[in-house]
Amino acid sequence: SPEGDLVVDHPHRLGGRGVYVCGSRSCLSKVLRSSRLSSVVGGAVEAPELAVMAQQIEERLCGRVEGLLASATRARQVAIGATKTESALTSSKKPSLVVVAEDLSPRVRRNLEELAEESAVRLEVYGDKDQLGRAFARTEVGAVALNDDGFARAVGQELELLGGLTTNKTRTEPPRN
User: Fold this and answer.
1) How far is CA 69 from CA 9, 10, 106, in A?
2) Is the pLDDT of residue 71 over 90?
3) What's the pLDDT score for residue 84?
4) Predicted confidence band at 175 (pLDDT cuts at 50, 70, 90)?
5) Of 117, 68, 72, 76, which is closest to residue 94 (Cα–Cα)?
6) How many other CB atoms sit within 10 Å of the CB of residue 153?
7) Which end of the chain is more exposed for a tag (fewer CB within 10 A), N or C?
């Protein structure tokens, strides 16, 4: 910012001078500890603690994921709920991406993972059922299937960034032939 504060600008909407930092926690840690940041932006920068900056980035990424999922819903490109996700995975037109909550029941999650693998559909894990539900204005959602390649690609990219930033997120992709 003009005041010398370091702010998160994702997805690159703020004007002015910016610095790109890769999405891993280790890169972020190196940048915040070094004096190179001040020399890159051409002045003194007030860098927050790593935990504070990581939290800000995580919040921004989660907001972006939830916004993309809400947009996919308005475009009618998403199947919401474990049952509808399972139906999408067994239909003739396969979804582009499946997203499941971390706290989805192990049996249901295993079933969806197996179906996604059989169908060569990418499966990502995101948040808990409450967090996933917020994107759809519901109390809880355990799984969703995105039918649009564009939405799937955008959500997948955000989840990859989130996975690099946090240590407890897991990701499953179909085997590549």
Assistant:
1) 20, 17, 23
2) yes
3) 96
4) very low
5) 117
6) 15
7) C
| CA geometry: angle 52, 56, 69, nearest 5 deg | 150
User: What is the amino acid identity at position 36?
Assistant: R
b/e map 60-81, b = 16+ CB within 10 Å: bbbebbbebbebbbeeebbbbb
Do the Cβ atoms of 97 and 145 come closer than 8 Å?
yes
Distance of CA 49 to the CA centre of its chain: 22
Q: In terms of pLDDT, which residue wins out, 95 or 27? A: 95
How far is the C-alpha of 36 from the C-alpha of 122, rounded, in Å? 38
Question: Which tokens is 25 given?
Answer: 């926690």
User: At 169, is the pLDDT very low, low, confident or very high (cuts 50, 70, 90)?
Assistant: very low
